[in-house]
Design goal:
By secondary structure, the chain is mostly helical. It has a single domain, classed as Tetratricopeptide repeat domain (Serine Threonine Protein Phosphatase 5, Tetratricopeptide repeat, Alpha Horseshoe). The chain has nine helices and no strands. The longest helix has 21 residues. The N and C termini lie far apart (50 Å).
């Protein structure tokens, strides 16, 4: 069983347990709501394409997770099928914002930091492939995308993203005055 399928099973189990507990006991969730709101605000800013602000929010979320002793208990705030590490997730999201801002060096640093936290997290490899593609390094882009696929990322989605990224990069260089 690949990691995404296993994690999805775990997520569903955790959600069921949280639901059963929450419906039977008064449960203090103020700390969880604070962390969830920072993550939710970052996601909203991402949807609005406010990349700079989103990157700052994700960085604040990472800081809160690293500073809070309850962070390991806050799994319900940042679970995903590719990672349960909220810090890795936040770092990947910072990198995605930086990619959209055109800061490929900064994005690559954040992606490497995400992989230091969770080397089995497929999405940073996918984003490293995007960075490589934007730099024109198709061989490296394919290698990084391949790592993401090995870790459970959908191969068709990875190929589609790689083609779209290469097309957008080519389009951008065609529009750049020489």
């Amino acid at each position: 069983m690949k990691r995404p399928q296993r994690n999805l099973f775990i997520i569903m189990s955790v959600l069921m347990a949280v639901y059963l507990i929450a419906t039977r006991l008064p449960f203090p969730i103020v700390a969880w709501l604070l962390g969830a709101s920072l993550l939710a605000i970052g996601r909203q800013l991402t949807r609005q394409r406010k990349w700079q602000e989103a990157a700052k929010r994700y960085q604040r979320f990472e800081t809160k997770l690293l500073a809070a002793p309850w962070r390991k208990l806050a799994i319900v705030l940042y679970f995903g099928i590719y990672t349960f590490d909220g810090v890795a997730l936040a770092r990947n999201n910072v990198a995605q914002s930086l990619i959209n801002l055109g800061d490929l060096d900064g994005a690559e640093q954040w992606l490497r930091r995400a992989l230091q936290r969770d080397p089995m997290y497929a999405v940073p490899y996918l984003n490293l492939g995007v960075v490589a593609a934007l730099r024109g390094d198709q061989a490296r882009a394919a290698r990084e995308m391949g790592k993401a696929v090995q870790l459970g990322f959908n191969p068709q989605d990875a190929q589609r993203l790689l083609r779209r990224t290469l097309a957008n990069a080519s389009e951008s260089t065609d529009r750049t005055p020489h």
